[in-house]
Backbone:
């Protein structure tokens, strides 16, 4: 498995575990199991999605604490149940231009 060259958030905040509750070894985790002495920031995939980024197509807050990665249909309907899912690839296509309507 190719390692992501960043410290594991879970390892540094109490433990990195498998879905069955057993501890993950360093070889099982895609992140590095190294202790760091500064606050660990959650990865984009672990953050709640930014409503401005996902629903308006842009987030102007350079220090935004929310996620700016494309959501799957399941995650979209979980976080934005009253909004139409724009389809896979919505962050890479035209919908993120101001005034553009999403089209499937």
Residues:
């Amino acid at each position: 498995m190719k390692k992501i060259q960043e410290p594991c958030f879970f390892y540094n905040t109490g433990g990195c575990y498998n879905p069955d509750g057993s501890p993950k070894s360093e070889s099982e985790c895609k992140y590095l199991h190294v202790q760091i002495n500064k606050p660990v920031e959650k990865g984009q995939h672990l953050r709640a999605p930014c409503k401005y980024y996902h629903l308006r197509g842009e987030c102007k807050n350079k220090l935004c604490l929310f996620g700016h990665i494309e959501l799957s249909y399941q995650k979209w309907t979980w976080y934005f149940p009253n909004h139409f899912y724009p389809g896979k690839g919505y962050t890479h296509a035209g919908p993120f231009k101001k005034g553009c309507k999403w089209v499937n």
In short: The chain has two helices and two strands. Residues 77 and 85 are 7 Å apart (CA to CA). Residues 1-41 form one domain. The two ends are 35 Å apart (CA to CA).
